[in-house]
Amino acid sequence: MVDLKSMTLDEQGELLKGLGQPAFRARQVFSWLHRGAASFEEMSNLPKDLREQLARLCALSRPAVARKQVSREDGTIKYLWRLADGNCVETVLMRYRHGNTVCVSSQVGCLMGCAFCASTLGGKVRDLTAGEILDQVLFTQLDSGRPISNIVMMGIGEPLDNFDNVLRFLELVNCPEGLNIGMRHISLSTCGLVKKIDKLAEYGLQLTLSVSLHAPDDETRNALMPVNRGVGVDKLLETCRRYFEKTGRRISFEYAMIDSVNDADWQADLLARRLAGTGSHVNLIPLNHVEESPLKPSRRVREFQRRLEERGINVTVRRSLGGDIDASCGQLRRKAGASQGIGKEGEAT
Ligand code: SAH
């Protein structure tokens, strides 16, 4: 079956041309798909025989809401979507002053093994297709009735480990005939795959790249993030500098504050030295406690922030939304998997 949802407008045009259709059909089909049409039947401006032909040729499914939690504190909504093959992924919708932001997953599970992260506990099951990433945006918007203006790729998975599908998703969502979300309204977060960061730089996209740094020294970063082993913070930061030179876009660094692991004064000082003069932004994130992990949230966030600021670094402390609904990613999927068998089999729940 053809995965029509993952195809660009041009690719759909080629396919429809092959079916003997005029050029304007692709625009019609693309626009139906990007408004969340769940069947070809409802594409009322297409001839009936084309609708039937497409239904025979193409897979078109919509994710089902396996769970939905709405925060009473701030209106954050967290969805657990069940995909066509039974796997589940999470999407979070957050309300900010500048609009509605959706946080999407890029993979079912994750291979990266970060010590503090719930998404990686069962390993990676599979990559999501571009259409499945897009569906999270489309159906979150449809179900919630809130127009989405910003996208962050900070859900389950490592986006740069699913490079081609993620790039395709970005192209789809950016398309004027689709959701038309500007690159400057999109952030992509990576644990720091240096070769893939170099590869991404070649596209010169104007999105915001966030790098999950979490420690300024190799000993701590190696312990927290296996991806750092054999690479090191120096090489990562060099890659980030190259990225900035190529794209003109400053990278922001994520730093989850963990008690007695990465919150010491000397680590703030070293971080400030390493980022000095880059104009980079540091996002301090209070660690979300993950049941399976012995790591605890730091109580030194403000001191750490002050120390960085005194040394000329731009810092924000991320406001935590949806605290009452386990809104940090990976947790809902695991809980649902454990209690209802929703997670894919083979996952160590
Ligand atoms: N794989 C990508 C994106 C997904 S995680 C990445 O590593 O960046 C999105 C962000 O949440 C990352 O910065 C990640 O390090 C952070 N994160 C994961 N688990 C967390 C936890 N328990 N508390 C706080 N932040 C966490």
Could you explain the architecture of this structure?
It is globular and about 70 Å long. It has helices at 9-18, 24-33, 48-57, 130-144, 163-174, 194-201, 218-224, 233-247, 265-275, 301-310, 331-340; strands at 64-70, 77-82, 88-96, 99-103, 107-109, 124-127, 148-153, 186-190, 208-212, 252-257, 281-286, 314-317. Strands 1-2-3-4-7-8-9-10-11-12 form a ten-stranded mixed sheet, with helices on both faces. The protein has eleven helices and twelve strands. The longest helix is centred in the middle third of the chain and has 15 residues, at 130-144. It has 349 residues and is of the alpha/beta class. It has two domains: 2-59, DNA polymerase, domain 1; 69-340, TIM Barrel, CATH 3.20.20.70. The structure holds S-adenosyl-L-homocysteine. Residues 114, 116-117, 154, 158, 189-191, 212, 254, 256, 285, 287-288, 290, 328 line the site of S-adenosyl-L-homocysteine (SAH).
What's a quick, concise take on this entry?
The protein is of the alpha/beta class and 349 residues long. It is built from 11 helices and 12 strands. It folds into 2 domains: 58 residues, DNA polymerase, domain 1; 272 residues, TIM Barrel (Alpha-Beta Barrel), CATH 3.20.20.
Q: What overall geometry do the principal axes of the alpha carbons give?
A: globular
**Widest beta sheet: strand line-up:** 1-2-3-4-7-8-9-10-11-12
By CATH, the superfamily of the largest domain comes out as Aldolase class I
Largest sheet: 10 strands, mixed
Poorly predicted runs of 5 or more residues: 338-349
Mean pLDDT: 93
Radius of gyration: 21 Å
Order of helices and strands: HHHEEEEEEHEHEHEHHEHEHEH
Q: Tally the helices.
A: 11
Q: Which CATH architecture of the largest domain is right?
A: Alpha-Beta Barrel
Bound molecules: S-adenosyl-L-homocysteine
Helix content: 25-40%
As for the CATH topology of the largest domain, it is TIM Barrel
CATH classification, class level of the largest domain: Alpha Beta
Q: First CA to last CA: what distance?
A: 32 Å
Percent of residues in β-strands = 15-25%
| Number of separate structural domains | 2
Per DSSP E runs of 2 or more residues, the count of β-strands stands at: 12
